[in-house]
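ok, trying the design again with the full structure, not the truncated one.
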């Protein structure tokens, strides 16, 4: 009986984590636009990478994705948003870093970490995939090769349209 109850709780926890509704939070982009996160078009997968300028694994992950980004765009329809979680002390470095890296992604500025908190994200790097208004995938941390798993998931949700 205990096994059944624990299995039920595990199912509910996983369902909550991977089918979470998008929060009604607005954030600025690096270009100065304001985006309401709950209104993002996720009819195709939307990858959101939470990062900061001081986070070395974050830099490695976004650089690895950038190396493959052009090919991925040819293979699948998806959007990539890079959500910078730098606070007031380091947010001024974001624009220079993004420009120097040549990242083509839309960069969100989550300086107060409102979006990060609303999605229950506790550490970075953290990547989520949003599809059809729900968080359908979540990955914490980065090791070389994690980007290959990410493109597999992107393709999986692309075929599920």
């Amino acid at each position: 009986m205990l096994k059944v109850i624990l299995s039920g709780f595990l199912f509910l926890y996983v369902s909550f984590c991977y089918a979470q509704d998008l929060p009604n939070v607005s954030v600025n982009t690096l270009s100065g636009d304001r985006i309401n996160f709950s209104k993002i078009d996720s009819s195709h997968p939307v990858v959101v990478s939470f990062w900061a300028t001081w986070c070395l694994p974050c830099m490695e992950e976004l650089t690895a994705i950038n190396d493959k980004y052009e090919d991925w765009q040819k293979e699948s329809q998806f959007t990539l948003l890079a959500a910078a979680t730098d606070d007031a002390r380091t947010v001024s470095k974001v624009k220079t870093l993004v420009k120097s890296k040549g990242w083509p992604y839309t960069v969100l500025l989550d300086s107060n970490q409102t979006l990060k908190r609303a999605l229950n994200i506790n550490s970075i790097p953290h990547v989520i995939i949003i599809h059809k208004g729900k968080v359908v995938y979540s990955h914490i941390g980065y090791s070389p090769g994690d980007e290959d798993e990410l493109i597999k998931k992107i393709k999986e949700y692309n075929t599920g349209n």
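Keeping the full-length input from now on. Confidence is low (pLDDT under 50) at residues 6-18.
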